[in-house]
Structure formats: C-alpha cells, structure tokens
Write a structure and sequence with these properties.
Order of helices and strands of chain B: EEEEEEEEEEE
Helix content of chain B: under 10%
Oligomer: heterodimer
Radius of gyration of chain B: 13 Å
Strand content of chain B: over 45%
Structural class of chain A: mainly beta
Shape of chain A: globular
Largest sheet of chain A: 6 strands, mixed
Number of helices of chain A: 0
Strand content of chain A: over 45%
Number of strands of chain B: 11
Distance between the termini of chain B: 37 Å
Largest interface: A-B, 25 and 25 residues
Number of strands of chain A: 12
Order of helices and strands of chain A: EEEEEEEEEEEE
Number of helices of chain B: 0
C-alpha cells in the first residue's frame, strides 16, 4: 500500500527567503505525486503534480517541486517566500495503476514571518 | 466556471442519528471523490466514483457509511448511525482524469457529533 510522509509538522521561514516543504513517499509502482495547499477558511487547492517527464515541475504561485526517484522524495520549493504563502501544505500520492487509493500526507504548516 | 458545491456547510447531530451530505461536482468531471478530514490530519479517501460506478471504496466503513452517485453527476454521502469519532470535515472533490488529474475541492461540510 502506498504512503506519504511529511517529516515536519511546522516550517518557519522569513519573508524573502527560500522555502522547502519536505515529502517522501512509498509506492509499489510508478508514483503520481501532487501538492495541495489549504489556506485558512478556504478549501484545498491544487498547486502542482508530477506524472512523468522532467523531474522539476512548476506550479501555481511560483512554487516548484523536484521528483527524486532514488530518494523517493518530492519536496516543494519556492525561491522567495511571501507572507501570503502561510498555509497548510499537503503532499499526496497515487500508485500509477488505476483504482489505487489516493493517499494524502499529514500536512505541514508553513509560517512566513514578515 | 462554477466550482464544486457542497451542502450543508455545517451540521451538528447527536450520536446514533443519521446525516446526509450532498455534492455537485464541476460540470463534465467524470470522477468524484469523498474524503474525511479529521482535525490535524490529512484528508482520507472514503470513496471514488467514475461516472456512477465505484472505483475505490476500500476505506469506507460500510456498516455505517453509504454513498451514491445517481446519473453520474451529483452525489450523496450518508452516515447512519453516527458515532462521536465521525466528527470531521467531509470533503467532496472532482476531476477530469481519475488517475492523473488534479482534484478540485469543495468547501467541505463540518460535522460535529455530540
């Protein structure tokens, strides 16, 4: 069965600094990987995904993530954090075989300090 | 384009009562998901529909939870009878592609069981 780990419950970063939110996964086949963000009092929103191809994927709001097969990781990054990036971030994975359970990680709370 | 609609937004019931949630996905989205999100955790997939057929319901507690998607559009999720541990936010999402497509989430229904 697939699983997702987000090793940090909370990440604090100063505005203007680069940010990284970590994600590692476990699947038996090829992974389909996703990042979602949940702002306060708002629904979950899609940020980016990796299905196949280039290991570096770019998404909404200047975020990007790098797929690393050998380390089974899919870390979310942004070169310069904004206060408005403060939110709850979820990594999710599905095994590439159809019908496999879609699994979310426990979430990482990002706080960007002015 | 209208987003995923859910109702009600909030519901408070006593244990052993029944409750139903409604979801209207984005027009044209064949895949519909129901998730349970307990406070402080990531969303847990309960059931996935492809049109009006069930793709995955492996984590749905079938002794008390049921879901249907008649005509492949709207969906309802029912709990009967409710337990205290069912207190959570119930999220509905839809996507064009049930394997690799990004999911669009509704605002959720916050259920409190007393």
């Amino acid at each position: 069965a697939q699983s997702v780990a987000q090793p940090e419950d909370q990440v604090n970063v100063a505005e203007g600094n680069p940010l990284t939110v970590k994600c590692t996964y476990s699947v038996s086949g090829n992974p389909y990987l996703f990042w979602y963000v949940q702002y306060p009092n708002r629904g979950l929103q899609f940020l980016l995904k990796y299905i196949t191809g280039d290991n570096l994927v770019k998404g909404s709001y200047g975020f990007e993530a790098e797929f690393n097969k050998s380390q089974t990781s899919f870390h979310l990054k942004k070169p310069s954090a904004l206060v408005s990036d403060s939110a709850l971030y979820f990594c999710a994975v599905r095994d590439g075989g159809y019908g496999q359970n879609f699994v979310f990680g426990p979430g990482t709370r990002l706080s960007v300090l002015p | 384009e209208a987003g995923v609609a859910q109702s009600p937004r909030y519901k408070i019931i006593e244990k052993r009562q029944s409750v139903a949630f409604w979801c209207n996905p984005i027009s044209g989205h064949a895949t519909l998901y129901w998730y349970q999100q307990i406070l402080g955790q990531g969303p847990k997939l309960l059931i996935q529909f492809q049109n009006n057929g069930v793709v995955d319901d492996s984590q749905l507690p079938k002794d008390r939870f049921s879901a249907e998607r008649l005509k492949g559009v709207d969906s309802t999720l029912k709990i009967q009878p409710a337990k205290l541990e069912d207190s959570a936010v119930y999220l509905c999402a839809s996507s064009l592609d049930g394997r690799a497509g990004e999911q669009y989430f509704g605002p959720g229904t916050r259920l409190t069981v007393t």
